[in-house]
Predict the 3D structure of the following.
Amino acid sequence: MNSQTETTVEFRTHRFDPQQKKPYVSVYTVPVRKGMTILDALVYVKDNLDETLSFRHSCRMGQCGSCGVMVNGTPMLACYTQVLHLESDVLVVEPLSNMPIIKDLIVDVQPFFETYNKIKSFLVKAGDESKTPNEFVQMPADLKKYWDLTLCTKCSICYSICPAAIDEVFPGPSTLAANYRFISDSRDEGSDERVKAMTGNIWPCTSCNSCTLSCPKEVDSSSSIVDERSLIIETGSIPKSVMDVLTSAFKYHNPIAMRPNKRMEWAKDLGVRTFPTVAQADILYFVCCLTAYDLRNQEIARSMASLFNRLGADFATLGKEEWCCGDHILRLGEKGLFETLAEHNISMFEKSDVERIVTLSPHCYNTFRNDKPYSDVGPQVQHYTQFVAEAIEQSKLKLHNAVRKRVTYHDPCFLGKRNEIYDAPRQILESINGLELVEMKRARENSFCCGGGAGRIWTEDATPEKRSCVNRVREALELEVEVMATACPFCVTTLEDATKVLDVEDRIIVMDILELLEESM
Amino acid sequence: METLTHDVVIVGAGIAGLRAAIAAAEASRRIDVAVISKLYPVRSHSVCAQGGTAAVLRDEDSYDLHAWDTVKGSDFLADQDIVEFFVKQTPKSIITLEHWGCPWSRTDDGKINQRPFGGHSFPRACFAADMTGFHEMHTLYGKATAYNNITFYDEWFVTSLILEDNVAIGLTALELKAGEMYAFRAKSIIMATGGYARIYEFTTFSHTSTGDGMAIAYQAGVPLKDMEFVQFHPTGLIPSGILITGGARGEGGHLINAKGERFMKDYAPEKMELAPRDIISRAETTEIQEGRGIEGPYGSYIALDLRHLGDEKINERLPLIRDVAIKLGGVDPVKELVPIRPAAHYSMGGVHANIKTETPVQGLYAAGECSCLNVHGANRLGTNSTSDCLVFGAVAGEEAAKHAFSSSLRKLPQERILAEEGRVFDGILGREGDERVPAIRDAMRCIMSENAWIFRKGDELNKAVKEIRTLKERFKNIRVEDKSRSFNTGLVAALQLDFTLDLAEVTIAGALARTESRGAHSRLDHPKRDDENWLKHTLAYYTREGPRLEYTPVAITRWSPATRVY
């Protein structure tokens, strides 16, 4: 076959020798022509440069799911990705994570396939209908309801990057999506048993959305999990820890069973104004339950308030009329309660008549932006990192003090993966004098969840080794940084907890960007 | 070496293998079934089947019509008794998958939808968008893994079959993860390892389609049938050869030459783009050879035009091929012409087996593309292969279970097992030769593509068979660079090369002997079909000197061979 070489690309291939149990790296220079896939390049290496390089491959058209690998930190099917589209002269190729490596790029996918034993992957019928010689009737619209979920190739990419799948109690994103595929199939009558089978093991999912974002077939496992939780909640048989969160959000309008009249205690002596005491303000400062009530996070709430003051911003909070935004509640599957919370908050937004809301938490930000009914109405929403980055860019904020620290930044999933805000937090950190920002191996789109989303922060019960926050802090420790910065109260809480679990509080501290900012001013 | 024992052992876990496993497991809970596959089942090539599965489901259609279409498509080489049985079983296959949850595409009133397909005179291709094989596979896998009496040996590579007194008694397999060899004892063995189109360079097939089961049976002394009949699919995507389903033409796609003409009017004026594959692939080749191909960086090609179908229809009916064309062909079929040319696609030939999938060896069965029963004759109709896998996969499972009930296990001859261990580890893995596997493999593909492609000539085939034999000699002097045991993909490649060299040789030998043109086998030096001398099946038997050919008659029940016009 004719081919014209366009360029050469260096493939830094991570390998593993099973005999010596030794990882090593081989570097190959591959002539790349237009249209060449990562898999074509690996085959080129094996045929021409190094016959010992080991990897799986078969259909080379994205259907068999054999060739999942990590390329420059992003998991993908090697056969479904063109080398030139990655626009890089150097490609680091690694095996998929979260599964034991057998050899080179070949991981042991057996544990992944075994997760399917937890579900029934065929139609369940109550009667003898399956013995009839006739087809069932299914209208095209009913087929459409589950069709997208049937496209999963079982490539294991979602499982390889899932923070919940570290704990084998959790069946994994694709298996739960497969379960929901049958629940949503109008021909199926096994919904009750399918829901029941997930009752005890669906909760570790943090709704980080990594599975959905990395799926080569765009299967939305993350949403399927939420929908399955809704069905479980309807049955009423849910773990106590989940029940406590929901009950508290229902009774106290916050998930942590705090009294609503204590919601403004963080602002004692700060003179923060609240609606409706003030009739008008430019900015509605939406604080978040965790920052309002949790002692550690209250510091962050206060930092934000003083920042507003320093900028001369006209802001107010909803005071005790701020109810939980409902992001965690929605992702735990309690859609009705979420709507109640949302309706209250929306009515408050309308009364306050502000043009802009600034949130401390990426979770509030996300749900205001993306979830109905919030997304249909209301003012412009900004996460505080956007607000601050804007102020720095417009030279409204002067950062006088040097902060001579080596810092890494952990992307909160609800800021990054769900809303693609990767740059604003980094712009802030980079504008602090003396601060040295270094990136973890898994950053931006490939960031690894802290394990706090979808109510997990309150329902977590895994052993330390199986907690994603512990894994994440270890990753930061490798960089020998003094500070692990983030921009989310939930990430602050889980990561700080992990430093205690690992007993490394003297080596690394977890800080919100706001706290670093405060040091720099 | 450890020996594992099961009643029924199935080699291969594609559509035929999984369907066989379920049928055997359902025959009785007491039947202990094993499925051995070099891949995890859902990695099998069956997931690449796209367009549909043929079945007579509606009153307006008939078994007779499906049978006639199949026989005519086969250029009268199909065994008609088997075709008649086959078409009557197809509806049940579809309904069974429906009951297990296959997401068939639907008509507006909620019934299983069917689309037109090349060579069929009724729209009888049941489909699940353009991922029919994929959905059938995942449906079967979901069902098969629920049986307690099926054990899966995933990523185990079968190296040889053990026969004794013309009875299949076991096999040897390499467990890839640790690299250890095991022996299996069984009462019944089913070969269902698919096709071997990877003997060619430009192919629609997966890297792993190397015809292992055919070669293993052949090397053990079981004859292969009609191996000269290789189907070339009219629409292999350039540059990779990836399949663009015939369903694209079924939905109304056109084939266009450099002059912008729908050239099929000159070859099959009535059926046009819905003529059988052999006829279209020859037409495309003629267009290209006579200078009416479109010039591109990878040589002359033909264009598949889907633009007039509109994005809505393409997204609903052909979403996979749109995605594949964009990602791997660099063109969007909604807006652009898709560059294609014929690609090696399917083997009508395979392990000689009868209507019950029995091979001449007692206890050995074959199903799916690995087998040749013979349903497809000299040219298979699109969508009949997945039907074949479903129908005869089930037959094989049932027959194998029945046989297992009435037979007993035998002791495996120890010297035979040791010899196989020696062949694989000392011979192939331990050999310190200076020939490289990829070089011989590429040379084989080149020989096959140049001499045993769509149009063939006696002198070229003669040359090719000698060249393949030279490669077989060179193979004896290979060196596998990776000397370790664990997941040795180099060793697997060498074993597969050994298999494909034999299969290439048999293909050429059959093609050289058959001095006529029939279906997919076109001899430029013998351009006519010759019913007087060649209305017969080729049987190839392994000998050290190369295949020994014998012939066996075609079963004609109702349809006398006639001129084949579309």
Q: What stands out?
A: The mean pLDDT of chain B is 97. Chain B touches chain A through 72 residues (CB under 8 Å).
